[in-house]
Design goal:
The protein is mainly α. The chain has one domain. The chain is built from five helices and two strands. A two-stranded antiparallel ribbon has the order 1-2. Strand 1 and strand 2 form a beta hairpin. Helix 1 packs antiparallel against helix 5. The longest helix has 27 residues. The protein is elongated and about 90 Å long.
């Protein structure tokens, strides 16, 4: 006596997997959404003076007067350039939100001798993951939907 099992539908399964893989490789739209979600978080962080990261240290008395023609004595918002000038870059392989001003990094991470003091602008890795997660969940749902269309 011989026990046999015949698997049918493998061609459909392979086509479905190929379709799902192609969907997942086309990440430009999801990456663009991720960058937008990250930018919203950054802008809210500015609006709430660092509330997303526990608040920013107040300005020292010596720096409370607006500089460079700015109008604000609020940390990181004197001229508004640091808040406004962010570059969005999204391709199938990358999602980048980058400050277009050269002084963003010292403020975000803190400068030498704590001048300027750290006032986090960007989320940490765990926060960033949670911020962009919906963009990639949508892509995965689309891949599953496309897979099901092919194998149905």
């Amino acid at each position: 006596m011989t026990l046999e099992m015949k698997v049918i539908g493998m061609d459909k399964l392979k086509r479905g997997m190929t379709t799902a893989q192609a969907t997942l490789r086309n990440r430009k739209k999801a990456n663009a959404r991720a960058v937008t979600l990250m930018d919203r978080w950054v802008q809210l962080n500015f609006k709430t003076k660092g509330h997303n990261v526990g608040g920013w240290k107040p300005l020292a008395d010596s720096t409370k007067t607006p500089k460079r023609g700015g109008e604000s004595a609020v940390p990181l918002q004197d001229t508004g350039d640091l808040k406004r000038k962010w570059q969005h870059i999204a391709t199938d392989k990358t999602a980048i939100l980058r400050s277009a001003v050269d002084y963003g990094l010292p403020h975000d991470q803190g400068g030498k001798n704590n001048r300027p003091p750290q006032r986090r602008i960007l989320p940490d890795e765990k926060e960033a993951f949670n911020i962009v997660k919906p963009a990639y969940q949508g892509l995965i749902k689309l891949a599953i939907k496309n897979f099901k269309k092919v194998v149905a």
